[in-house]
Amino acid sequence: MIKENLTLFTWITLCSWILFGCCWLTLRNRTKENIQHRTTRQRWMAAIGYMIIFSALYYPLFTGTRLLPASPLLQGLGALLCVTGVCLSVWSRLLLGTNWSGGVAAKRNHELIVKGPYRLVRHPIYTGFLTALAGTSLVVGGGAAIFVTIICALSLYLKIGQEEILLNELFPGAYAAYQRQTRKLIPFIL
């Protein structure tokens, strides 16, 4: 059953997510010191969360159940969205550099990054991640993939609120001006 479901588009999404994972693993400890440290529990919860997300994304490959049609056009669009989203996330993560944190945390000598994709949206890593999730959902077509994409979008939207409070505290005035110039997730819209 799983071999029948592994289309070229599925392989493209899998390779994209592997690239994403390799980037995150490679760069995870190349950051400035956190002012507030994440607990071991928080780190484990994040790892478990990623396992759940990716298991749900690819669940239809094992069951053969799809909600969306297996249209080459729809799957091609999904693969393109996934690749684009992963590339945007990786580019944004590289630009953020040592200021990146897995949780909402201030770094010692934290800097405000406003170049590259940060000129258009304040949270391009999340924009890319959600775009890649949506693209993978179109390729795989399962209900669990669609559900996890919606839950991730809602969760990240809540996390953005916490991050923006922190960034306004770290960069009084400067972050508020940046907020007026850019959107949260989608250029010119949201």
UniProtKB/TrEMBL annotation:
The chain crosses the membrane at residues 6-27, 43-61, 73-91, 125-158. It is a multi-pass membrane protein. GO terms for biological process: methylation. It is found in: Membrane. InterPro entries: ICMT_MeTrfase, Metal_cation-efflux_comp. It comes from the Bacteria. Keywords: Membrane, Methyltransferase, Transferase, Transmembrane, Transmembrane helix. GO terms for molecular function: protein C-terminal S-isoprenylcysteine carboxyl O-methyltransferase activity. GO terms for cellular component: membrane. The keyword Membrane applies. The keyword Transmembrane helix applies. PANTHER family: BLL3993 PROTEIN. This is Isoprenylcysteine carboxylmethyltransferase family protein. It comes from Chitinophaga varians.
